[in-house]
Design brief:
By secondary structure, the chain is an all-alpha fold. Helices cover 62% and strands 0% of the residues.
Length: 190
Amino acid sequence: RRRGDGAPNTSDDLYPAACVSASCQALQQEVDAALEGTISLSSLNSLACALAEAGETAALVRVWDALGGSKGASPATWLAVEALHARPKHLLPGSGTLRLPAQSVRALPPARRLHKICKGRRMSARSAGAQEHVANGLAWVAAQRAAGRSLEAGGGRGRSLLAKELRKALGINLEIARGLVTTLKRKKVL
């Protein structure tokens, strides 16, 4: 590759001024290899952990896609991703010091995408936890309707109040009760 003036590219052209440390350049080379698809799944997991620790949100999201998302992520990778997500929003950089190739399709901003990744995991766990209580929830709803009660779970406050009632009636935690309300709505029971 050559610059616009015909001179060969130097390391100053390849890496921004903020990425001059050896560790940053090593991360840059690993990210480049990951985006080309030339490293293994275990290496992608360790790279994702390193990027999360370094606060490189944009690079982490791109490596996450190369990893295959949640299917390829190890438990250690999930811990690192959730630790990055737990940082206060103003401390979550959208793009760090690493250079990434341009994307051909429009994508969410990196911090928003990271939030969606973590939210998806939480919602999936909530739904899975609610599955074992569906039969009890159906019975509770049937008993309430038999008593002549109208159950409203359209959204917002009504949905929240119904989750709290299910929590008390079935002896489950609120997060699972919220998942149960969602499951019952999908089954068109509520």
